[in-house]
Amino acid sequence: MSGAWVRPARGALALLRVPTATGRAVIALALAAWAGSAYADIVELRLVALMCALAVLLAVPWLLIPMRVRASLALRPPRAVAGERVDITLSAVNDGRLSLWQPLVRLPVGERVSWLRMPTMSPTERVGHDVVVEDLERGVHDVGPATAVRTDPLGLLRRAVQWCDPIELYVRPRMALLSTLGSGQVRDLEGVPSDRVSMSDLAFHALREYVPGDDLRHVHWRSSARAGELLVRQYHDTRRNHATVVLDPTPGSYLSDDEYELGVSIAASLVMCAAREEYDISLLSGREQITSVPATTVLDATCRVQRDPDAEPLAGEIHQAIILAPDTSLLFVVTGSAAPDLDALAAALVRVPAETRCVVLRAAPGDTPSVLRQHGYEVVMVGSLAELPGVMAASS
Predict the structure, then answer these.
(1) Judging by DSSP bridges, how do beta strands 330-336 and 242-247 pair with one another?
(2) Distance CA 173, CA 264 (A)
(3) Helix boundaries (H) for the chain
(4) How far is CA 316 from the centre of its chain?
(5) DSSP H or E run through 311
(6) How far apart (Å, rounded) are the C-alpha atoms in residues 209 and 189?
(7) Phi, psi for residue 232 in degrees, rounded to 5
């Protein structure tokens, strides 16, 4: 558990780690000198062997000095965006009876490793050390464990003591600020009127003439008696909007890693805008399939998405999206410029309910942005993340 002192699992013997490169050289020299003295009966070689062995033995007590430390890691910000700076603070308290003289601590951050020289730690004293990490790529990175590495003065042996467990750093994709996801959609769950009228909701809107097929339960009999004709109630539709983002996970749809990362950034930008407009949100991309959860959880999922050679075709992802979120009012499909089966994509979109607005966004770094309206859906070409707000406004 983070912040707890971790006792080595194999007892006192496990405290003695493998010798350092220098230690291995000294041990090898001792063995060679001893073998040479035994073979040639040279006293000087025996003396060299004894001195090397004595140096190794004298290094052992340095490693046996107890090190009891409680430590914790803190991240600022707790969620980062690719390329941004992250401040990591290692706080530690010396719970031992002896002072620790400037311990050297190894702190991995993803694939990177930082070495921290902590200040001298007196008993019960709390100290801290800050590390700045920049230009992290999108993903979920393990920060830690923080491990103190102690060596003897000659650097022959070393001992590693884990101070705290690792924590996860979520690095989200770069995102663009979108003004809106589109117009003409239902807006609020709490009874704020929308532009859509309904015959099956709770917010009364107006009366209109009866037409064959209307539910007689909606007839307003008192007004009908005064007007001399049947009048039925109409209601404002107060259902909550639901935006679903499908990110194509098939590797063949993208020409490069940069193109895929642009697609991920587009998807995350749509999720962020949907959260700001208080939509329910669903996200599908291969193994990542989540719906009706807080926006922070959906954005965390964009840190984990990856291209998957075993993922089903994009048309299958769209079908799964409709099953996962059948009340979707906005469906965004994000793919690359090399999406191979556009006919299957069009056929899948045709099967989407007619009241659902469908937008296909194709990541194509360097291409000219454009909006093409097909039968029943729109195709938006995005050449860079900075162009996304403009083309989304044009497609609204």
Answers:
(1) parallel
(2) 7
(3) 21-40, 43-64, 221-227, 257-276, 295-304, 314-324, 342-350, 388-395
(4) 24
(5) none
(6) 28
(7) -120, 155
Find tokens 């049947």 and name the residue.
Answer: 230
**CA–CA distance from 274 to each of 26, 64, 78, 293, 318 (Å)?**
64, 57, 22, 12, 19
Helix (H) / strand (E) element for 202: namely none
Nearest to 240 by CA among 290, 284, 196, 180: 196
Q: Across the 396 residues of the chain, what is the mean pLDDT of every consecutive 10-residue run? A: 44 55 89 89 88 89 84 94 94 90 92 92 92 93 92 85 94 93 49 43 65 79 84 64 93 93 96 91 93 90 93 88 89 89 78 87 91 85 93 82
**Bridge-based pairing state of the strands 104-109 and 112-117:** antiparallel
Residue written as token pair 């803190």: 74
Cβ contacts of 262 within 8 Å, gap of 6 or more: 363, 365, 382, 384, 385
Whole-angstrom distance, CA of residue 256 vs CA of residue 360: 19
Same domain, 337 and 263: yes
Q: How many domains does the chain have?
A: 4
Whether 147 and 109 map to the same domain: the answer is yes
Which one-letter DSSP state was computed for residue 234? E
Q: Based on the domain organization, do 369 and 330 belong to the same domain?
A: yes
Number of separate helices (H) and strands (E) present in the chain? 8, 20
